[in-house]
Amino acid sequence: MILETAIKNFRRHLAGRVLYLVALALLVMVSYDCLTTFQDSFISRISQGNPALVALLLLFFSLLGFSVLIIFYANRFFIHQHRSEIGLMIISGLSRGQIALIFFLETLFGELLALGFGLLLGLLTNKLFAMLLLRLMGLRAATNHWFSFSALWKTSLGFLIVFALVGIFDSSRIFSLRTVRLLYPNELGDIRQRNSWLNRLLAWLGPLLVIGGYVAVFKLSWIHFMETLRFSDRTATNTVLIMGALILGIWFCFRNTLPALFSWLQGTKWAYDQQRILDLATTGQEVQFHHQSLTLTTLFVTASVVLLGFASVLYSDGFRNLEEEAPIDLVADRQFHDHVLQQIKAKGGHLQRLAHLPVKIMPVTLHGPKSDVIMSQATMPIEIVGMHNYLQIQRHQKNLLPVILDRNQALFISQDFQYQHVHLHELMRNQVQFADGKLPRLQIVAFSRVYPLGSNLFFGNVLVVPDDIFEQIPSANSRVLVGYRLKKIAPDSPFLKKIDDDSYQSKASRQMRYRHPQQLQKAQITIYQDVKRDLSNAYISSNYSVRGPSQVLLQRVLGAIVFVIGLLAILMTFAWASVCSLRELSEVERTRFDYLTLTKIGIDQHHLLRYSNWKNRMLFLSPVIFGIGNGLLVMRFVGLYLNHLPMKLLYLLTAAVFIVYWCFYLFTSYNYRRIIKMTTPPDQQGR
Amino acid sequence: MRMVEVKQVSKSFGARNNLVRALNNISFTIDRGEFVGVMGPSGAGKTTLLNIMSTIDRPSVGRVYVAGQEITALPERDLATFRRENIGFIFQDFNLLPALSVSENLVMVLSMLKIPRDEVQKRLAYYSEHLNLNKLLTRYPNELSIGQKQRVAAARALMTQPKILFADEPTGSLDSKSATELLQYLATINLENETTIMMVTHDAFTASYCNRIVFIKDGAFYSEVVRAGSRQQFFNQIIDMQAAIGGGKISDFRNRD
Ligand SMILES: Nc1ncnc2c1ncn2[C@@H]1O[C@H](COP(=O)(O)OP(=O)(O)OP(=O)(O)O)[C@@H](O)[C@H]1O
Ligand SMILES: [Mg+2]
Q: How far is the CA of B45 from the centre of ligand 1 (A)?
């Protein structure tokens, strides 16, 4: 009979829980996908040199942890929903153990269903999952490792442990429930608490903390911590402070401020003239009762938006940087040319010479708006290439900006410029004056982020100038870079990785010392190779570079991280929205009698349903909007810092988050209405 | 034989500065086979008293004995057994598990008690016959009218053959015909099976089915009226007492008489 009751209970509530179970199934699905993909032989071979794939395991465990949270909350609402039934069972003489068992079985059916369904989905979607991941990592390979027995049982085991864990929580909660509270729920306790001085203090503290947190986001320096993740730093303290203030602030807002505000509203006269405001005011108790889950909703939405923001930054910014790298496989300058080429030939590599690029260097001054910001001092050293050579390389490196320069015109190439908060049209109004007074001033007419042959071969900013001017520039410290196409060696082979590593060692890299930058005539540039000196004001550039190892690695790391972060944010949104929906539905049992009474008083059902809709929308969506506001604010700040955050992409993703919650709200209010209509006694149902 | 003994029970709610004394040192007894009504003005503490006597709540001070056991001293673990074996309960509203059909609601507790199948079936047949539920057995609670629900609730409470049945305004949401029917069933069961019944009610007409009424006011025992003559006489006595205690409704009189 216990089993039978559990099954019947389960069936009765299935309709309202179906989306929650789907969300759970999705969590299972992705967990399985993570494990199988991680175990895939092809991928694990790559992952030996690629720590980013560990992110998959991290994702797996965070999904398990997240499942504990959402199942825990879902069951909490289920118990809430079952309150009076549990009370009745207690008073009928069932032991707490039996009741806990009924409840556990009831939830277990759903969970097992979700587990089975999720694993099935996992088997089906695994290929897609792996394909997406590989695609983002820039790998073209097919994996066909969709069935893994060990992943299957590990996922099942993981989730069974989660189910059991939550089951234990639930049972202990059922054992501690007080019978009177179940049968005679009363709100008196809450009202009393609302008048204490502590409560009034917290009600003011909430918004203050939130506003303080916002101000701190912009005033304190914290973003540095996000990059380094080093806890010893002051920025770490700031980050913790900001997060703490925001979390506490949001919590107090829902726990104290809103209920206090609403109860005050209820007392004011003008609220009675505005139906909407009165409706709003009556939700105060519910807000207070659910302040925990409302707070969590806000936090999860914020986290989703921030995660999606970071994913989109990494995706568009990181991938753009990668694209800006030269597609030319090997570049060497004269000095290391023969040495590197020999090494590669000895390994069986085949080299095809593509183009060569003479590079000269000279101090310059910019004249024009914001020139001091762009130079960051009175003068700056600049590397110069000729237009003819530049265009030759452009034939092989299609992402180079194709420009034809007239007399006294120049193309400015820089990766720093984007971070300097200077508008492009301001840059274009600048002129370049060389240290060598005989040379004419050049007008900057174009800007690019893409360096010929790759940015890591250069010290900093590069100027492309017309050939006749290039001829006139003295060739002290100049060099010639030669680009090759490489065949018969895999770009991620350990051999090339070693060559790449060598290119960053001091012997291979050139160091530049730049002195007296205050005056253009006195400014001097010295270039060292393999000399250990005090080079505090120095720049370093490689003398040769192999495209492959570092780019490939970077792309894979980026790809894996974007994938994992994005997926986590999406799942979080979906799963938590389903829990919110359960929260609203768990209220139905309590409110349906109120509605019944109100219908008896003579308020028409249409009106009541409109009110219930409105209340649901308010409870459902206000923390979402709050969270989105939070997230966008934080990302806006990060965006200012990055200067070119793809806000459009983020807005799009945020809209998607909102739409998910909105859909869940529609589902909830549909079910809510269904249940309310169902509880109308038969003689009142208009048949 | 004593069925219930309430000894100097007090119950207060809330914290220091807004303490509500719902029950104030109340004592009385109920003998086996009695049908006792509890009346009193709203807020007098009737529900609180019933909850304490039926193990739903615990008193702040005092002792309660039911069927010879001190229920105020029983740990929660033993209370479950005690409830199964001794008490039944009918609430005003919520009495049935919505997921189970009527017959399942009726047999649920018994089947968990490992009572033999044919015994369970025998009781099911008996009570559904008695309370006129035969046509409703396969329905679900949301397919019943309120009066039907209350009848099922009574059957559910009686299925375990409790020694004492508690009812908190069981006729509160019924129309007078259904109420009369239910009360007649309760009276019959009280007579035939010697089931002790304690019922809280506001309504003098409902109360007139009892054979003793305990009046409480402000959480304390006020007085009692024992039925001696006809139901009509008893009814008039109750009305008088309600008028004396204050809070009774004179309209009761006009409607019923
Ligand atoms: N959980 C509680 N917290 C605080 N006070 C309570 C609580 N339950 C009851 N009370 C108070 O105790 C007193 C007795 O309440 P009780 O419900 O027993 O009255 P009653 O006689 O059943 O009233 P009614 O006829 O209106 O149902 C009332 O003043 C009530 O406000
Ligand atoms: Mg009462």
A: 6
